[in-house]
Every structure is written in structure tokens, then in C-alpha cells.
Specification:
Strand content: 25-35%
Strand order of the largest sheet: 2-5-4-3-1-6
Oligomer: single chain
Order of helices and strands: HHEHEHEEEEHEEEEEEHEHHHEEEE
Number of helices: 9
Distance between the termini: 59 Å
Mean pLDDT: 86
């Protein structure tokens, strides 16, 4: 009887050691999600708290200038809007923000120039087109210019202003880049245009959203800084062998791959669903998905 008890205790000790070892290994390879927004950049300011803050009117493509600033009324431009020629690059102070029953807002502003005109803004999806908080632009430029990042995506753009197009340029994932230029962009849902330079001297631009300020509700989180960049070299963050990194760089995932490696390969999923059978489904807007069972990829639909 004592022998059986002893054997049982030894078995329990062995199982405990094995569990502890697996847990330790899991902790070593856990993907540390880089969340730049929560610690290093600007905080989100709800539009209801804009009263007393300064906004600035942003530039537009030439083809849109004649339509003037579409979110506002009280001017002498098209359909009573503020004229582009009178407001571009001018600042105004938010006097009041009044919600309506549908969840949208009426925003009264007073121009800070010699005209002292008052305009009334009407939000769509809780955002005002072609304006930004002055403090956001100032703090974003100070934070971002000169920063070093590693690319999560394999593309960037150059702007063809004549054709008013963002032309895609193929790039290399995980390459080191420096922010060498900063401007407000012409994208309402990604207000900051970053000029990036890699170690070979090639340049490109990406439009990013830093804190979801003045972004349409349907587009929240779409172009956040952390979607595009790592703060550190990912190859130094994760001690995976060259073969795995080759698969990741080529966006290849396979059954049995660690969940963390699959996410590194395909990027953060657009939706994560916990299934009744205990598996997790990671879905992408492209239509692709993979399921995870016990920490490893189980089923795959290619993107």
C-alpha cells in the first residue's frame, strides 16, 4: 500500500514539473503586442470634450477645393460652406458641442483670425471632415519625427498629387525605417502623413491614425500606428529559427504553427472568435482565417 502511494506521489511530481516546464516555454514565446497608442502617443479626446480647444482647417486635393469644407455651414462658399481659400491652414476655437438624439453633434467654432467668423459643424459618424486638433498635430510631430520603427507591412506609398493618387510601392516586412517627414495627410481617417526612409536611403509614405481623434466610428482603429510598425526589431524580440522567420516573412502559415507565429505572419486579425469547442478563430477582412487549438494552428483558409 505504501509503495502505491509513493508511486502515485512521484507521478504527481512528474506531471507538475512537466506542466511548469510547458508553462515556462509558453511564456518565453508569448507574443508581446506592441500598443503604441496606450503608452507613447496622444490620448483619445472625445469630441464632446473639444470645447475650448483649437482646431485647424486642413488641405485638400485640388479636385475637392471647389466643394469647400463640407462639414460646416455659415460661410459664403458652395452651399453656404466656409470657403477653402479663406479657411485653409487657419485656426478656430471650439465654442460648444451639442449632441443630438441620433448620437451626432453640432459643433460651433469661432475663427481665430481677423475675420472672427462663426461656423457651425455637423458631424458624420462622430467626425468632422478636414479639420484636426492643433494640439494633436503639434504633439504627434514632436513624438514621431526622427523615430525609428520596424515595418509590419510590406508596402508604402508615394503621392502623385497631379493624379491625386496614392501609388503603392512594394517593400520589405520588418525592415528598419526612420520617420524623416511629417505632415497632416489628405485622408480623413488617417490624419498624419509620415515620410519614411530606410537604411538604403529609399523613401515612401504611410498615412496613419494615432489616437482615433476625429475618425469616423466605422473606421476606428483602421490605420492605427501599431498596425504598421514595431518599436523594436521583431527578430530580436522572438528567438525563432531562420526557417520559421522565412515562413513569416512570406506570410506562410501551416498546421501546427504557434498562434503567435501565425499572427506575426498574417498580422493582427480583424476579428477573434472563441468557439464552443474550445478553439479560437482568427478572421481577416480578406476572407482568410485560421483556428487555434491548444496554442497551435489547426485549420486554415488562405487569404
Amino acid at each position: 500500500m505504501q509503495k502505491k502511494i509513493l508511486l502515485f506521489l512521484i507521478f504527481i511530481l512528474i506531471q507538475s514539473f512537466a506542466f511548469a516546464s510547458q508553462n515556462y516555454q509558453a511564456k518565453k514565446i508569448t507574443l508581446k503586442k506592441i500598443n503604441l497608442e496606450s503608452s507613447d502617443t496622444l490620448k483619445h479626446v472625445d469630441i464632446r470634450n473639444w470645447v475650448g480647444k483649437k482646431i485647424v482647417f486642413l488641405r485638400m486635393f485640388n479636385s475637392k477645393i471647389d466643394f469647400d469644407y463640407t462639414s460646416f455651414s455659415g460661410g459664403t462658399g458652395m452651399k453656404g460652406r466656409p470657403k477653402y481659400s479663406e479657411c485653409f491652414d487657419h485656426e478656430a476655437t471650439v465654442e460648444s458641442v451639442i449632441p443630438d438624439s441620433l448620437g451626432e453633434f453640432t459643433v460651433k467654432i469661432l475663427m481665430n483670425d481677423k475675420t472672427h467668423k462663426e461656423y457651425v459643424g455637423h458631424t458624420f459618424n462622430s467626425s468632422l471632415s478636414r479639420v484636426a486638433l492643433v494640439e494633436d498635430i503639434e504633439k504627434a510631430e514632436k513624438f514621431l519625427k526622427g523615430k525609428i520603427f520596424w515595418m509590419k507591412v510590406d508596402y508604402w506609398y508615394y503621392l502623385n498629387e497631379e493624379k491625386e493618387q496614392m501609388i503603392i510601392k512594394n517593400g520589405q516586412r520588418f525592415k528598419k525605417v526612420k520617420v524623416t517627414g511629417f505632415n497632416p495627410s489628405m485622408d480623413d481617417n488617417a490624419l498624419y502623413e509620415l515620410t519614411l526612409t530606410d537604411e538604403m536611403g529609399e523613401t515612401g509614405i504611410l498615412n496613419v491614425n494615432i489616437n482615433n481623434n476625429n475618425v469616423e466610428e466605422t473606421m476606428l482603429n483602421n490605420s492605427l500606428l501599431s498596425k504598421f510598425f514595431f518599436k523594436k526589431d521583431p527578430r530580436k524580440m522572438f528567438d525563432w529559427d531562420d526557417e520559421i522567420w522565412h515562413d513569416i516573412e512570406n506570410k506562410h502559415i501551416y498546421k501546427g504553427m504557434l498562434k503567435e507565429q501565425a499572427i506575426m505572419s498574417w498580422g493582427e486579425p480583424d476579428d477573434v472568435i472563441d468557439m464552443k469547442d474550445g478553439t479560437t478563430k482568427c478572421k481577416y477582412s480578406s476572407g482568410g482565417f485560421f483556428t487555434v487549438k491548444k496554442g497551435k494552428v489547426d485549420e486554415i483558409r488562405q487569404q
